[in-house]
């Protein structure tokens, strides 16, 4: 978090939180009241001051005011950068994946130390190249079999990342927030 934000919070500790005005879509684009934010300096400021509270609600700390974020899917969107490294939509490197979930549509969601993030579908080839079925690359049949499983079950797939192999579990999209401890629609109550 920026030092200027910390100072503003100390000066004005009782500014009310905002709900329902900030939205993060599945591509990692920010919207304020339906209008897309595109200014690079604003986006960089938001990236540095984006965090999660004890309830699993994600927010942008804008000076002394906390604006809670409505999430279209997950709090983070994971992308492969030009160097081939996995990063969050906020620009932070992902170095560890604790768990991988496969939803009913074939999206892969990683549980990382930074939070839960869906792997951007633009990086699907990168993600598929890391799926394994036993000692072999996962083929279409193995992936189809995993997708056919009910939510909440283990698959026979593994995801290789940073020298580790992580078991892939089938989790329905609606169950992801509970499974990975985040809230899609924060509220004051």
TrEMBL record:
InterPro entries: DUF2944 (IPR021332). It comes from Spectribacter hydrogenoxidans. It comes from the Bacteria. This is DUF2946 family protein.
């Amino acid at each position: 978090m920026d030092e200027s934000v910390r100072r503003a919070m100390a000066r004005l500790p009782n500014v009310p939180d905002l709900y329902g005005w900030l939205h993060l879509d599945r591509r990692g684009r920010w919207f304020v009241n339906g209008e897309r934010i595109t200014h690079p300096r604003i986006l960089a400021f938001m990236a540095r001051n984006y965090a999660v509270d004890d309830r699993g609600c994600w927010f942008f700390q804008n000076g002394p005011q906390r604006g809670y974020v409505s999430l279209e899917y997950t709090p983070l969107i994971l992308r492969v950068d030009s160097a081939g490294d996995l990063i969050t939509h906020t620009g932070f490197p992902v170095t560890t994946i604790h768990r991988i979930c496969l939803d009913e549509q074939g999206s892969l969601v990683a549980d990382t130390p930074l939070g839960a993030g869906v792997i951007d579908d633009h990086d699907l080839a990168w993600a598929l190249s890391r799926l394994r079925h036993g000692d072999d690359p996962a083929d279409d049949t193995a992936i189809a079999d995993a997708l056919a499983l009910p939510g909440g079950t283990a698959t026979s797939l593994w995801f290789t990342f940073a020298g580790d192999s992580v078991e892939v579990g089938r989790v329905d999209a609606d169950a992801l927030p509970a499974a990975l401890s985040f809230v899609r629609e924060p509220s004051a109550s």
